[in-house]
Amino acid sequence: MKRLRLYRQVASLLMVLWLAVGSASAQSATSGQRDVLREITDVVGLKPRFELRATTEVQNAAAVVYGGKRYLLYNPQFVGAVNRAGRTDWAGISILAHEMGHHLNGHTLKPGGSNPTDELEADEFSGFVLRKMGASLAQAQAAMAIVSDDEASPTHPGRSTRLTSIGEGWQRANQQIVASTRVPAPSATPAVLANRATAPVRTVATSSSPVSILGKITFRDNPNIPYYLTNRLNVVKIDPEERTAQVVGRIALSESINYPYVLVDGQQRRLYISKTGGIFDNSGRQVAMLSDPS
Hints:
The chain is α+β, with helices and mostly antiparallel strands. The chain has two domains: 8-182, no CATH class; 196-291, no CATH class. The chain contains seven helices and 14 strands. It has helices at 8-21, 36-43, 76-86, 90-104, 116-133, 137-147, 159-182, and strands spanning 26-28, 51-55, 61-66, 69-74, 196-198, 203-204, 211-219, 227-230, 234-239, 244-253, 261-265, 270-273, 278-280, 286-291. A hairpin with a 4-residue loop joins strand 11 and strand 12. Mean pLDDT is 80; it is low at 1-33 and 196-207.
């Protein structure tokens, strides 16, 4: 590969100089740009704990750690040229996914520069991520088909080997997606917590202040059992006959743009709530709906 990544020591040094002097050529990604980092981390279930920086101080792209913080550096002219040559924006996204793969696989925490094993792991990660994001195999391989060298070097594998690794990651993600459509989804009903509180359906009385009902959650695999969201962000299961309410989970804010809330049950299993109230499992399948309680 024609140095898709600079040696990490060199990139780290550039990062130090760049941050120290505030190079005018460095620029943060603007708020109007597509939030690719968040899209990538969303599909692998992680929070975007990276900072993306566009700068002409690097020739192409690099993953570096500086001051305990992880950065993804990229040259916008390089990424633009790759997108044009590959005739797809997936080319540039695959480059960023490759660099993120270095961070997530711990490559940037090890001494030394680039090596073939690390590069192939990052290539496989990029293929996996791009399939999860909706790219075809050709789109996932577009950048590497253009910028990698035919023959291997001491630091980077040859083109055919790298394309194979990307394909393996893409196929692994594709198998997961296909399997999820064939096998019936397991129950997404949250686990019931031990504590109970006597409550009417609309308002749960407490010794301190009343707890009101904000929304109703209906699970597709068990639509006849009512669950409600309280103003304390607890999810409770109502038993109309016994007039009891069991706390089965809690709603919390997330850092995802598409799924701003997450429902966590007593076993720390998570479901993701979209802006429109749809509730989805980790495979992206809608399992429930949050609606007005009336």
